[in-house]
């Protein structure tokens, strides 16, 4: 459970590995981790930036907030490996919010990403040719168990 070691830098109160059914009807399981995060009042202003009337949004000032460290944490949480690049699962955001994120990735890190429809939402695809830009920005902040997401296993 190497991935289970990546747990929000002290904001968790429980870590319980357990087998979860695969759902394929063959009775198999895969390792899963459950945890609880602490609710800290001091973090409420950050939550308020990303929720409007209970709906998840991308704040207009995201360009100022998306530092290399924040980008690394985002990848650890919502990033996905693809042989041809990388995905950022942004399904909970509107198309215009995802387009804003793509604009900020280009402005802040020189990453030319694309938007893709996924179910009823939108995700970000970063082609492999821009993974060197991703790695240059986030590598100092990535735990070793997450390096596969940025194609940086050493």
From TrEMBL:
Gene3D superfamilies: Homing endonucleases (3.10.28.10). The keyword Nuclease applies. It comes from the Eukaryota. The keyword ATP-binding does not apply. Residues 28-129 form the Homing endonuclease LAGLIDADG domain. Keywords: Endonuclease, Hydrolase, Nuclease. It holds the Pfam family LAGLIDADG_2. GO terms for molecular function: endonuclease activity. This is Homing endonuclease. It comes from Jimgerdemannia flammicorona.
């Amino acid at each position: 459970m190497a991935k289970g070691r990546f747990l929000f830098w002290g904001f968790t109160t429980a870590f319980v590995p357990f087998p979860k059914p695969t759902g394929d009807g063959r009775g198999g399981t895969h390792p899963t981790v459950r945890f609880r995060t602490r609710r800290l009042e001091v973090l409420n202003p950050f939550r308020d930036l990303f929720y409007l009337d209970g709906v998840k949004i991308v704040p207009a000032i995201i360009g100022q907030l998306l530092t290399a460290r924040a980008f690394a944490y985002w990848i650890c949480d919502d990033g996905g490996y693809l042989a041809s690049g990388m995905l950022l699962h942004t399904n909970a955001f509107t198309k215009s919010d995802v387009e804003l994120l793509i604009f900020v990735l280009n402005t802040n890190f020189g990453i030319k990403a694309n938007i893709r429809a996924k179910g009823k939402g939108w995700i970000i695809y970063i082609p492999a040719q821009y993974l060197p830009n991703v790695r240059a920005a986030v590598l100092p902040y990535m735990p070793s168990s997450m390096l596969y997401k940025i194609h940086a296993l050493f």
